Every structure is written in structure tokens, then in C-alpha cells.
Amino acid sequence: MNQPSEIPCYPAIVAAIEVISGKWSYSVISQLCQGAQRFNQLQRSLTGISIKSLTDTLRHLEQRGIVSRKVFPTVPVTVEYSLTESGVAYSEILVRMRDWGVTWGGLSLD
Amino acid sequence: MNQPSEIPCYPAIVAAIEVISGKWSYSVISQLCQGAQRFNQLQRSLTGISIKSLTDTLRHLEQRGIVSRKVFPTVPVTVEYSLTESGVAYSEILVRMRDWGVTWGGLSLD
């Protein structure tokens, strides 16, 4: 049992919860766990995501310091997305959430 | 960096995210980290929560196996809420989210 000193403090938790508030946020983070990817690669990997949803999700994660965006001056321009150090730390929370879901939610890893 | 095998699997993560999908869920869980509490105690501790929101949040958490509800046959009836084993495990995720928010969100523990 957690002691009172370990109780979550609200602004910090709210910041963490907001990261995964969008429908696609955790899917994008988990894709980027595999390494940097371009927009089109992400869209292909995330079946069913629209260009608008992917754009919005990447912007949402970039604004929260989870994802970094690197532009290469090719023609046409190439944009690559990757997890920041903060994003990698966050992905560890998602792994713990998955483990909780598997242990307590009666859900398999499939 | 997580390896592909560590990537969150979606149904389990969705189950975990759903736990804190309500505005008051994490507040109620963190209150119950201090031990079992009755409805009125919870309402007093959670400034600004309405009876309906607290009722709905407790039901939401009970349905997901986070909170257990114990009824004592007093007059009037006494109902006590506490974290289940699953709820205690979940509160550890919230502690990690807090720590992430403090480390990466630039938020203090106050």
C-alpha cells in the first residue's frame, strides 16, 4: 500500500495523463519505440489512422516533449519523428500499463 | 529504448487507460491509497466533487476491479470503499506517472 507521501500529486499526473488523452497517442508512441520513422511509414504502420489524426497526434506529442521532429532539406522535404528521452521514459509507463492490463484486466499479450 | 517485444499491446493498455479516463478517477485512487474510506469521508477529502461524480467514479473503479465496496448492516447502512490488490498495483503506475510529470513536465511535487 502506498503511503501518503507517495500519493500522486495532481499537476504532474495530469501532465502525464494528457499525453495519452488522444485516441492514437499510445499507438504512435509504441510505433516510435522501434526507432525514428517518417510520416508515411507511421501512417502505413497504424492501420486506420487518417492523415489529420496522425498530424494532430504528432503535434500533440511534440508539444508535450514526447516526440521530436527532424526536417531534412531533401526535395520533397523529409520529416522524421522519433521519441525524445522524455518519450522513452514515458514509454516505460505504457509498458507498465500493459503489464497491469495483462495481469489484472484478464487480457492476453496478443 | 524499448524493443518491439516490449511494445504495449493495445487491449491491455486500453484497459489501463480507461481506469483513469474519468476526471476524478486518479483523485479517488490516491485518496484510497491512505486506506479504506466511507463515501462521506471521500467527499470531504475531494474538494469540489459532487455526489453524482463521486458515485459515478466509484462505480467506474469498482467495475474495473480497482475499488471494492463493503456494506456494513448498520442503521443507516455504512458503505466503505478500499483499493483492491489490482487497485494497489494500479496506484504504482500513478506514482510513476507523477514521477514522470515531475522529471519531464517541469512540475513540482507541491
TrEMBL record, chains A, B:
The keyword Transcription regulation applies. InterPro entries: HTH_HxlR (IPR002577), WH-like_DNA-bd_sf (IPR036388), WH_DNA-bd_sf (IPR036390). Residues 9-109 form the HTH hxlR-type domain. PROSITE patterns: HTH_HXLR (PS51118). Pfam families: HxlR. Signal peptide: none annotated. Keywords: DNA-binding, Transcription, Transcription regulation. It comes from the Bacteria. The keyword Transmembrane does not apply. PANTHER family: TRANSCRIPTIONAL REGULATOR, MARR FAMILY (PTHR33204), TRANSCRIPTIONAL REGULATORY PROTEIN (PTHR33204:SF18). This is Helix-turn-helix transcriptional regulator.
